[in-house]
What does this fold into?
Amino acid sequence: MPQQRVLTERLELIPLADEHLDEEIGLDADPEVTHYVWGRARTADEVRESHAQRLDRGRQVDGLGFWVGFLHGEPDRPFVGWWCLAPPHGSDQPDWRTSPGVAEFGYRLHTRFWRQGLATEGALALLTHGFDDLCLRRVIAHAMRDNVGSQGVMRSAGMTRMRSWVGEDGPEVEYEVTRHAWFSRHLT
It folds into this structure.
């Protein structure tokens, strides 16, 4: 199944494509947005490299990838940010080739859209897509331990904190939601 367009009450999530590179460059140019990820704003060349890596991860498993989000129902359709439901990556994460049915969730939003429920709205839509349409078994998400905002989004989306550790960039936490937990919460 190719990556699907996903609609919510306020968001249109569209599979990431080369035409969205300028929006990604603008997003990562804000040091507040990238504070917990890179600790600084990113250069256009760095974002181009990340963009290529995101597209590559989106081609690894049918239906998984990165989505860019726009507010729909507004004349100028402002770019909100991006969300991912992608194959896990990193040395401490499950390998998608040997752990099918596991995906990693993440997001990055422009600061003007923080604290409006949009991160959670996009998260719930992608988790629903992952469990309903892609039959995922488990979704994980990571954040720096000090990033309480992202952890709040994970909890609001039904994820549970599973572990913490000290990584290369400092203390981190992992959240997850399993297929069983998702349907137990959403079918009652």
Q: What stands out?
A: The longest strand covers residues 170-178. Residues 146 and 171 are 8 Å apart (CA to CA). The chain has a mean pLDDT of 91. The two ends are 28 Å apart (CA to CA).
